[in-house]
Design goal:
Layout lengths: L3 H22 L3 E7 L18 H8 L2 E3 L2 E2 L5 H10 L33 H6 L4 E7 L17 E5 L11 E2 L2 E2 L1 E3 L2 E2 L6 H16 L6 E6 L11 H10 L5 H26 L6 E7 L23 H4 L3 E4 L8 E3 L4 E2 L3 H8 L14 H4 L11 E5 L3 H4 L4 E6 L2 E4 L8 E4 L16 H18 L10
Parallel strand pairs: 1-10, 1-11, 2-13, 3-14, 4-5, 4-10
Antiparallel strand pairs: 2-12, 5-8, 6-7, 8-9, 11-12, 15-16, 16-17, 17-18
Helix pairs in contact: 2-7, 5-7, 6-7
Length: 456
């Protein structure tokens, strides 16, 4: 006959192991903060000499900083489509900007695919509550609204950009929504999106299932319109600063405070320890409004590094080592989808261009397999002519052009990270051909997916 100790010992062991088992099997919350048009060098932790971003700097220090992280496009809509599908923009049906119609001119260059499993839909299979707060920019009507593609909750702006951070209108139209309700909130858009996020956290603190929140700020996108008190503070502190630059610095510093409030809100509601948080931008900073993308060349709209490389960090308490840094690991916006899916325990088995970088976050060995990386943008007007332009990278080699009517240029980023010295084709003909042929194959295959919307 078993003794009482022999009988109870396995039960006691299981009880002692239960917290560890729960820690291994429980699913963390996900918060992805995507800001709009933030220059690679426009944080103080990235060297901005005239800008103070203490809250974002603290966030970067609390987790893993990526110095070679890329947006999937040098403009807004395509990158957002890649994030939500894990696909290259042209494979997602959004090779260019989806715009709010102004007149009869063809100004919109994408149609979000409705036959793919989106990130929020995928995470819902693992029990996640899904929400989007902030900027959408992938369609104004069904079936292309946030709630149509998997978000349980939407509180934000459907359109491409606001003409005013305070009245929130675009061409005189109101695209502010709470789900399907047209709303007229008062206040600066950055403050509104932050307040709504804090409200959302309050609804989640006692829920058993995890959440995925996509917080999409429209700052520091144009119009460069910081609250006056923030502009006054910059002008007083930075003697002799260019007025255009001062306005952008103030808008970013106001955004920095908002991110600090969001992180504090997570902590106040007891959610921080159980949440993976990603901070990134949809593309580089806009050059003609004073953005700083140094030490990179180029800006928003360019296929140079300044248009597509973005400051990015990930925090995950208890998993990611604070203060860790990845100077050379290359990932793109589309890689976030499979990474979060793997963390949630629902790996991707359907069509996917992105790949998970979870081992990097966990400090585990990660084989940097060679893969050709592609960027595409389709745009109209006299500069672009409605013809796509691209970049392709294999290893340290990159081939690009910045509009449709210029020759391709080739660079070796290891030797020339500032892309100042194009390498003639005859100097490295095999590499040029490899890059060009890889790009041709991608263009050929991406042509399967239509992007044209029907005229209303």
């Amino acid at each position: 006959m078993k003794s009482f100790f022999q009988f109870i010992a396995p039960i006691l062991a299981l009880a002692l192991l239960a917290p560890a088992i729960q820690a291994e099997t429980s699913k963390p919350n996900f918060l992805v903060i995507m800001v709009d048009d933030l220059g690679y060098g426009d944080l103080s932790c990235y060297g901005a000499p005239d800008l103070k971003s203490p809250h974002i700097d603290d966030f970067f220090a609390a987790g893993m900083r990526f110095d070679s992280f890329y947006a999937n496009c040098p403009v807004c809509s395509p990158t957002r489509a890649s994030f939500l599908t894990g696909l290259y923009p042209d494979n997602a049906g959004v090779p260019g900007v989806i715009r709010t119609p102004l007149d009869d001119r063809p100004t919109s260059w994408g149609d979000f695919r409705n036959d793919v499993t989106t990130l929020p839909t995928h995470l819902k299979t693992a029990g996640y509550d899904t929400a989007l707060i902030g900027k959408w920019h992938l369609g104004l009507e069904a079936p292309d609204r946030p709630q149509d593609i998997g978000f349980d909750f939407f509180h934000g702006f459907l359109g491409d950009m606001m003409d005013d951070y305070y009245d929130h209108l675009r061409f005189g139209q109101n695209y502010m929504r709470r789900m399907e309700e047209v709303i007229e909130p008062e206040g600066h858009a950055t403050d509104l999106f932050t307040d709504w996020t804090l409200d959302y956290f309050k609804t989640r603190k006692d829920k058993e299932n995890p959440f995925f929140l996509f917080l999409a700020y429209n700052a520091p996108h144009t119009p460069i319109q910081p609250p006056q008190e923030w502009l006054d503070k910059v002008l007083e502190r930075e003697e002799g600063i260019d007025p255009k630059r001062a306005a952008l610095v103030a808008l970013i510093e106001h955004l920095d405070e908002a991110v600090g409030r969001v992180v504090k809100g997570l902590k106040d509601e007891g959610l921080w320890e159980d949440t993976v948080v990603i901070f990134t931008s949809d593309n580089g900073g806009q050059g003609n409004v004073g953005a700083r993308n140094l030490p990179l060349n180029g800006a928003k709209q360019d296929m140079w590094e300044g248009g597509i490389r973005v400051g990015t960090a990930v925090t995950w308490p208890g998993v990611i080592q604070p203060g860790s840094r990845q100077p050379d690991h290359v990932s793109l916006t589309m890689d976030i989808y499979p990474t979060l899916a793997e963390i949630a325990g629902v790996p991707v088995t359907h069509e996917m261009d992105g790949r998970s970088f979870l081992p990097v976050l966990k400090g585990e060995p990660f084989e940097e397999e060679d893969r050709a990386l592609f960027w595409v943008r389709l745009e109209g007007n006299m500069k672009y002519g409605g013809i796509p332009y691209h970049a392709v990278r294999i290893g340290d080699w990159k081939l690009l052009r910045n509009h449709s009517f210029e020759p391709y240029q080739m660079f070796n980023l290891a030797n020339d990270p500032g892309e100042q010295n194009p390498i003639p084709r005859e100097k490295a003909p095999k590499m040029y051909n490899d890059l060009f042929n890889a790009l041709l194959e991608h263009i050929n295959q991406a042509g399967r997916y239509p992007w044209q919307r029907e005229n209303p």
